[in-house]
Please model this.
Amino acid sequence: MKYEVRRRLWAALLILGFFVVWELLCIMLNVSDLVLPRPSQALTTLVLRFDVLWPHILQTLMTTMVGFALGVVVGVVIGASIGVSKTAYDTAYPLLIGFSSIPKVAVVPILVLWFGVGTVPAILTALAMCFFPIVVNIATGLATTEPDLEDVLKVLGANKFDILWNVGLPRTMPFFFASLKIAVTFAFVGTVLAETVASNRGIGNVMMKASSNFDVPLLFAGLFILSGLGVALYVVFSLIEKRVAGWATTRRDDATIM
Model:
């Protein structure tokens, strides 16, 4: 326990030290605000304009979470299908790889043509960004189920659905939560990407306007907001992972301590 507290304290001090060094270098080198604002300037801008930024923060968070939730559903369904069926794997996996290789900035204009400017393209871009890691991890988790265990369950009268529900999906929990922590950050990227192109609300739109007005402190304040939201959601899913799949993470943590 003492080791854990000490490790987290050191991590917090190193993070704080990074921002202190950033602040001091900007002061010592007399760096212009138009090039690189100091962290204190970005935080001051965030505090002073929080009333204006708050609706945009809620918009980005809501859009991201809706797109992320849809991405989880799509990812689990496709991942489970690929994991249990070789035909589905041979058919869907090349298509998924091809789709994931397309830069999503090229997809946003198409979504705007289909759905117009607004929240829908941002939600769909977040979905497109985040579902692929979930698919891969669910399929990988199902692939790790021991064939001998499946044979025993078949002898006992279990069908494919019973094996998937009672053995396959529980075994994928560590892979699933690992993919969620990655996918939620990708969802933020997709939302902000779409907001900069096809929305008049959200942090992405605020950052685009700040860039056009050369308001660099506001631009960095938006970056701090996005970073904070991403870290907060990562921590939330880490805590849920410990409650749901703690049996898989405890050994890893013990090995790290040793």
The first helix runs from residue 2 to 28. The domain at 39-249 is CATH 1.10.3720.10 (MetI-like fold). The chain has one domain: 39-249. Residues 250-258 have pLDDT under 50 and may be disordered.
